[in-house]
Amino acid sequence: MAGAPETIAIAVEPPLARITLARPEVLNAIDGRMLVEIRAALAAAAADPAIRVIAVAGAGGRAFSAGIDVAYVKDLEGFGAREVGRELHRTFLALRTTEKPIVAAIDGLCLGAGLELAVSCDFMIASDRSRFGLPNIDRGIPAIVEAAILPLAVGIQGARELAYTGEFWDAAKAERRGLLHAVVAADELAREVDDRCERLAAKSATGLATQKEIVHKWMTTDLETAIDFSINTVVLSFGSRDQREGMGSFLARHEEGGDDERR
């Protein structure tokens, strides 16, 4: 896509790429242009060998994203609504399948399609003032698209609660139900996210890319297919420089300490 993005901000700070949803005047509501620009940013980060981790945040301090922009969808009819659903899925699938780990930094509201975007990332870290929900049911619209991931994240009963009631979970409940990896004070969020990104960036890029692909198969195929895929895919890591150096370092460290553990 030509020209600078209009709905997101991109900061490239190797080994990290930051994507910020930048429509704070509408609580970072998602429209068609934002979906295209997110995909373009992900593709650029994936192609840049200096980038090891991607962080996604929302501007303004009031919302990660309040969901779909009503102005974007209010006049749609059946086939148009279906195309919007497909466009959302293209973007969320890109988040799930981009080979580099993605950390969502959530501060404020994370609702509807915004929650689907966040749960499509590999890690979700939130401020303690964040809230989560699927309020579209209050407008007569069921949860669709990557809301299908929620039963894997919070169990079928948690997903029913969110989808049927439209009620919000606070950050403490979201963490307790397994949706979040960490909850911190708002003024500590940036540091917590940076720390997580630094730890991920220190891992083997090949190992993480392979692991992310394996996890995707765990989520999307039957058990035996997923196991078989993981066994065959491990050849991408074995024999790599990262694997040889990592195992060599492990063995040397434990031989010096007299520890014969080999896990």
Spell out the key features of this protein.
2-enoyl-CoA Hydratase, Chain A, domain 1; six-stranded mixed β-sheet; four-stranded mixed β-sheet; 10 helices
Describe the structure.
The strands form two sheets. The protein has a six-stranded mixed β-sheet with strand order 1-2-3-5-7-10, sandwiched between helices. Helix content is 48%, strand content 16%. It has helices at residues 32-47, 70-73, 78-97, 113-119, 150-165, 171-176, 189-201, 205-220, 223-233, 241-257, and strands at residues 8-13, 16-21, 53-58, 63-65, 102-106, 109-111, 123-127, 131-133, 169-170, 182-184. It has two domains: 8-201, 2-enoyl-CoA Hydratase, Chain A, domain 1, CATH 3.90.226.10; 205-257. It is an alpha/beta fold. The longest helix has 20 residues, at 78-97. Helix 1 (32-47) links the parallel strand 2 and strand 3 (53-58).
